């Protein structure tokens, strides 16, 4: 069946094709009766405007590419939901594309740029210069989140991961923990690097040595296995600072469910991100925050400023974490 066009609706409604086009835009400049008539006829005919075709004609787009690297899946799902909601409030739509490996971000963004996008938001733990070069060649504004403090050639909204590591470790020290283990993420990812630095600096300031440093994939299973191995060793830790809530929940499961240890009396656990499930009574997880709402609002402000003035210098916005204390530490 032939796809209906705006001209078909115009003929049926007895108006011009441009009037049909204006009826489907936010600033339509049509009187209410005419617009209502056009929309009624269009609905009866089953017509829907082709947004991609319109963007090509007008050289404008309502699409924003959102590219995810290999970070924390639990956090990313909530992050994307909030981000897409805020974009829609501003008349834009998120085109989500995930890269399973950090080294494939450039290729993934290249696929996203095959669509007429107004901008690209990349949540990744590492910088790929090819990503920045690709966006420049296509004249597509690029905003990184998950990195910091600056990304040359792109705007950046970033969390102070190092401060989160300090807050979590300092709290464990105040509780009296002296053998604090770090359950980290993928080595080289910014979240892991920053939080590990904060952990080490807090220990050094207190005159303590790190008990152990484990690298995981930010997830529940690897956090659980790392904690289980350490807790069953001849020299078990009395505290865990974890790179993510997922890894921390894995450590909690190892301690409480698998080894019947008391938390926080036998071992205390602190996570990072403060996802909603961290507050569930069954977990009651103390965590350094990674405030999605604040980060998303800063992304929106940065995006709007960049689209309004593409020539302005690179912007970098830092978000500071807080520590939410609950029963696990």
TrEMBL record:
UniProt domain HTH lacI-type: residue ranges: 7-58
Keyword terms, alphabetized: DNA-binding, Repressor, Transcription, Transcription regulation
Molecular function terms from GO: DNA-binding transcription factor activity; transcription cis-regulatory region binding
Domain of life where this protein originates: Bacteria
One Pfam family named in its UniProt record: LacI
SMART domains xref list: HTH_LACI
InterPro entries for the chain: HTH_LacI (IPR000843), LacI/GalR-like_sensor (IPR046335), Lambda_DNA-bd_dom_sf (IPR010982), Peripla_BP_I (IPR028082)
Protein's recorded name: Transcriptional regulator, LacI family
Species for this entry: Pseudovibrio denitrificans
């Amino acid at each position: 069946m032939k796809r209906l066009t705006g001209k078909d609706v115009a003929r049926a409604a007895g108006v011009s094709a441009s009037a049909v086009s204006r009826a489907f835009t936010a600033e339509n400049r049509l009187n209410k009766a005419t617009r209502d008539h056009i929309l009624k006829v269009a609905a009866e005919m089953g017509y829907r405007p082709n947004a991609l075709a319109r963007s090509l004609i007008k050289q404008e787009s309502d699409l924003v590419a959102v590219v995810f690297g290999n970070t924390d899946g639990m956090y990313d799902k909530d992050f994307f939901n909030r981000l897409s909601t805020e974009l829609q409030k501003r008349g834009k739509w998120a085109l989500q594309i995930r890269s399973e490996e950090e080294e494939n971000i450039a290729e993934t963004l290249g696929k996203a740029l095959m669509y007429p996008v107004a901008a690209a938001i990349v949540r990744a733990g590492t910088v790929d210069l090819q990503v920045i070069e690709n966006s420049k060649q296509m004249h597509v504004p690029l905003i990184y989140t998950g990195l910091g403090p600056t990304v040359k050639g792109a705007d950046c909204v970033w969390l102070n991961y190092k401060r989160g590591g300090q807050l979590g470790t300092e709290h464990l020290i105040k509780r009296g923990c002296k053998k604090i283990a770090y359950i980290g993420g993928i080595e080289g990812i910014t979240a892991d690097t920053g939080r590990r630095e904060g952990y080490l600096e807090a220990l050094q300031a207190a005159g303590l040595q790190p008990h152990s440093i484990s690298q995981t994939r930010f997830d529940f299973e690897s956090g659980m296995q790392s904690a289980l191995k350490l807790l069953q060793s001849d020299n078990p830790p009395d505290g865990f600072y974890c790179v993510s809530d997922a890894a921390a929940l894995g450590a909690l499961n190892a301690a409480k469910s698998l080894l019947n240890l008391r938390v926080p009396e036998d071992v205390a656990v602190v996570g990072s991100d403060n996802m909603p499930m961290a507050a569930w009574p069954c977990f009651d997880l103390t965590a350094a925050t990674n405030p999605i709402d604040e980060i998303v609002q800063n992304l929106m402000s940065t995006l709007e400023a960049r689209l309004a003035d593409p020539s302005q210098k690179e912007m970098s916005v830092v978000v500071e974490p807080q520590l939410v204390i609950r029963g696990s530490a």
